[in-house]
Specification:
Blueprint (H helix, E strand, L loop, with lengths): L1 H23 L11 H4 L1 H35 L1 H16 L2 H12 L3 H25 L3 H9 L4 H32 L11 H10 L2 H29 L1 H14 L1
Helix pairs in contact: 3-4, 3-6, 3-8, 4-6, 5-6, 6-8, 7-8, 8-10, 9-10
């Protein structure tokens, strides 16, 4: 009985020692080999820049396409009946499959990555912009019409400003989603920080895997925080409204 207990305890100690070395060690077999990081700073910065560049381009192009589509969809239900289901169907296509479909036409490189990522942002951006525009109260629109606003002026001065919270929320969601999807584009010779994840997985080498995952998560969190601050800057009246509501509750 004592021999069996000692064996169990010995195995537990051995497992803990192996786990401790994997987590806290500093060699090629640990989860993070700290000496590897300064030796690969150039790659880290290059892949981080690529990750940011792909994200900014894709969300920027996506917004440029989604805004007029959403405006048309808000104006005409027939357009909404076509646009919304179409972008939703595109969003359901697996990323690997979509990149594979683009490869024969575009070849590997940045083009298929940006095209695929842009298409994925459309479902989020179109839906949020459309909901924001539809959420503008009818009496506000009537008041703008009564003041002689043209449709274009009403859109720029009334509808888009009032839809800004929903629009920025869509940009936040699209940005965070795109940061995650960028990692998959390594299959077309892009990928940003996803290159580290692929390399670590293929070689069973933990350090680049951990670096790629941690930096991707950190980038997503940072982008979300910055966009929240941007939302507060472009919609200052929301803070005033929240303070007024808080005073009334007291």
């Amino acid at each position: 009985m004592a021999l069996g207990t000692n064996t169990v305890l010995g195995n537990a100690v051995l497992r803990n020692a192996v786990l401790g070395n994997a987590v806290l060690g500093n060699d090629a077999h640990s989860w993070v080999w700290w000496a590897w990081i300064p030796k690969h700073q150039h790659e880290i910065y290059a892949y981080l820049r690529e990750h940011i560049s792909l994200t900014v381009l894709s969300v920027g192009f996506g917004f440029a396409i989604a805004l007029p589509l959403a405006v048309l969809a808000a104006r005409r239900r027939a357009v909404a009946a076509v646009v919304v289901p179409t972008v939703n169907v595109i969003y359901t296509i697996p990323s690997v499959a979509l990149l594979g479909l683009l490869l024969p036409t575009t070849g590997p490189g940045r083009d298929p990555a940006v095209i695929a990522l842009t298409l994925y942002t459309l479902a989020i951006l179109v839906r949020n912009i459309l909901e924001g525009l539809r959420g503008v109260p009818a009496d506000v629109l009537d008041a703008a019409d009564g003041m002689g606003y043209t449709r274009r002026r009403r859109l720029l001065r009334v509808e888009l400003p009032m839809a800004l919270p929903a629009i920025v929320a869509g940009i936040r969601l699209a940005t965070v989603s795109t940061i995650g999807l960028v990692t998959v584009t390594f299959i077309v010779d892009q990928g940003g920080l996803g290159r580290f994840i692929q390399d670590g997985y293929q070689r069973d080498f933990h350090t680049p895997l951990v670096v790629g995952i941690v930096l991707s998560v950190a980038l997503a969190v940072l982008a979300d925080v910055l966009l929240v601050r941007l939302e507060r800057v472009v919609t200052p009246w929301r803070a005033t409204t929240r303070r007024a509501n808080a005073r009334r509750k007291r």
